[in-house]
Amino acid sequence: MAGKKINGQISVAPQIAPKDLADIAQSGFRSVICNRPDGEGADQPTFEEIETAAEKFGIETRYLPIVAGKVADEDAAAFADLLDNLPKPVLAYCRTGTRSATLWSLSQAETLSVADILEQTHSAGYDMAGVVRRIANGGRTPTESTEDARFDVVVVGGGAAGISVASSLLSRKSDLEIAIIDPADVHYYQPGWTMVGGGVFEASDTAKTMASLIPRGVHWIKSAVAAFEPKDNAVILDGCRVVKYGRLVVCPGLKLDWHRIEGLVETLGKNGVTSNYRYDLAPYTWRLVQEMQAGRALFTQPPMPIKCAGAPQKAMYLSADHWVRTARLGEIDIQFMNAGGVLFGVKDYVPALMDYVKRYGVSLNFFHNLIAIDGPAKKATFEVIAPGQEPLQVGVEFDMMHVTPPQIAPDFIRVSPLADSAGWVDVDQATLRHKTHDNIWSLGDVMNAPNAKTAAAARKQAPVVAENVVSDIRGHSATAQYDGYGSCPLTVERGKIVLAEFGYGGTLLPSFPRWLVDGTRPTRTAWLLKERILPPVYWRAMLRGKEWMAKPEKVSAA
């Protein structure tokens, strides 16, 4: 009887018997808390029987009985005191373990985030959705009303997807009451960070205040989301405020999981370790490229999915091009460390990319996943898992290293009722409507449709979602569908780009006639598009609901 582990200090269990204490002691537990009142069940051992058996093994016991369904605020406080003072690890039990898991959740509400609490209890097999408002309220029962605000449409996330979809909604139905929930002060044009790392853009050109971009007439709720209650059409904010909605659009982006790589956080921005995936580090990339005279440069790519699958290569090509222009390439060993097995997922673009791989003398290392970095020693450790071979770890020394971090759905999404088994919002890939909850849609990097996670994809998705939400409000079925479009302008050299545009299944979806832009080969026209045209299109069109080359495709007749 080892119980169900919540973390290293606490496990919870259904009713235990005196004979279980030997196994409990053998499992290393030093304390037991009983949360089930004596006499609740006819065949239930008393606490005194458990206490007597525990004494034989030197295990401390405490009795904190809770009536089922009636965990009071003071009970959670008492449980917290017990956890503070009892020897660890602790096993808490009741009839099923739920009361014990609830007590732990409420007792930790002021020290852990709602997402952390929900994730740890979920991993132990307990659903704390019923007390999520109390957790968000610091473990205390909310005294305010059950509704602090209500809107026709609530948009979670104020990034490219969120602001674009809000603008597209207003352009279709101007009387909608819309709210965007996002705690950030600054909005970033993230596609520009590759160009910052290549010395083309200034970092400051990729940032604007959030307040300046929220569409006129849209309410901005400057807060973080703690949890979702789709059965009540409610979003719970940090601090337990409750926002109700008629329709919900979920697009908070994804989470860059820097901590997944041992030693990475400690060395980012120094010791030659950088990443264009962070606003403040992209200028450091360019500094390293300029300063490097000789040695080894590593460029990493983690397992999919990631934001802009070509970004790891873009950094590599622009760096190599600079070393060509400054006559240093011959002194620099460029290594591309890719956790996957192919250079690019759409084969039509690979020949052009391979030409540049050969031109720059890049060594391709597939199935190499970065797991640790020793910054001061300038050594990276990769786990190599090639098909048909035994896994192994290899250490690689470096002088400069561009890291693309692992990427996952945000914590509050992964533990929510909206997520699929992998943690992404579960949508129909054509309509982008949630598969279970009819009044919820999702777009951008957070949803699970099998498309590339790019700003260009969000540009096409926003009108689809807006069209379908408004159609639903008017009592009609979905009228627009998304074809999986994504774009990845691969900056193979300064002044030339391989403009990869594709949809579901790798189908090529070029926006321009081939005589103007042949996406399968590098062109100066595509570079002009990336450098001069797309930034103003982003700021002045996409975010303002002007759907330039992004009109939604109508649902085809069955």
UniProtKB/TrEMBL annotation:
Keyword entries, A-Z: FAD, Flavoprotein, Hydrolase, Oxidoreductase, Quinone, Transit peptide
Domain FAD/NAD(P)-binding: from-to ranges: 151-271
Cofactor: FAD
Flavoprotein recorded as keyword: yes
GO biological process terms held by the UniProt record: sulfide oxidation, using sulfide:quinone oxidoreductase
Limits of the Beta-lactamase hydrolase-like protein phosphatase-like domain: 7-110
Keyword Flavoprotein: yes
Molecular functions per Gene Ontology: FAD binding; hydrolase activity; quinone binding; sulfide:quinone oxidoreductase activity
EC number annotated for this UniProt entry: 3.-.-.-
InterPro entries cross-referenced by the UniProt entry: BLH_phosphatase-like, FAD/NAD-bd_sf, FAD/NAD-binding_dom, Prot-tyrosine_phosphatase-like, Sulphide_quinone_reductase
PANTHER family reported for this sequence: SULFIDE:QUINONE OXIDOREDUCTASE, SULFIDE:QUINONE OXIDOREDUCTASE, MITOCHONDRIAL
Listed name of the protein: Beta-lactamase hydrolase-like protein
Organism in which the protein naturally occurs: Roseibium album
Gene coding for it: blh_2
